[in-house]
Amino acid sequence: MRFETRRQAMDEAIDWLTYYNHRRLHSTLDYISPMQFEQNWLEAQLKKLHNERVKKYGLQGQGQGNIFTCQVVGTSIV
Asked: What is the extent of the structural domain holding 14?
């Protein structure tokens, strides 16, 4: 495939990457997209962290809703 401009080539590459990472279902990920897999993983990590903090500090059930807030910074949860 030949492109008339570098911009056309970049647009085609971005379109393919968007499809591959956001919409294509991957068999090794139980037929979900990589983005959905990452989102599911992150939600599980945040829930795990919240439960660990509740267990450690014993603050569950005080009517304050979500007691702890977690923030994602890069690839770390703080």
From this structure: 6-77
- CB count in 10 Å sphere of residue 7: 9
pLDDT band at residue 56, thresholds of 50, 70 and 90? Answer: confident
66 CB-near residues (< 8 Å, 6+ apart): 50
pTM higher than 0.85 for the full model?
no
- Domain count across the chain: 1
Residue 63 lies in a domain: yes
Average of per-residue pLDDT across 57-64: 59
Whether residue 1 lies inside any domain: the answer is no
